[in-house]
Amino acid sequence: MNNHFGKGLMAGLNAARPDSARNVAHFCADYKRGFVLGFSQRMFEKTGDRQLSAWEAGILTRRYGLDKEMVIDFFRENQSAVAVRFFMAGYRLEGQG
């Protein structure tokens, strides 16, 4: 994991909570995408709730200014229409705040 995505993924897997948009502003999009997916995976492992982790990934995707298509593909690959809906709900919710 010696690239930006891999470093972000590992940081997300090890994070107790997500950073604010201000704290991650200096990272590249690949790092932020890795972080979002790593953090989402960590949430799933802790809670067993794929919908909750997808919802959080949607929130973080919007908060970090990422292209949602770059992140949502992860949930589409798992053939989970429910997870995609929860991702989009989180993404839209963050945009209202």
Automatic annotation (TrEMBL):
Alphabetical list of InterPro entries matching this protein: DUF2623
Superkingdom classification of source: Bacteria
Protein name: DUF2623 family protein
Organism: Intestinirhabdus alba
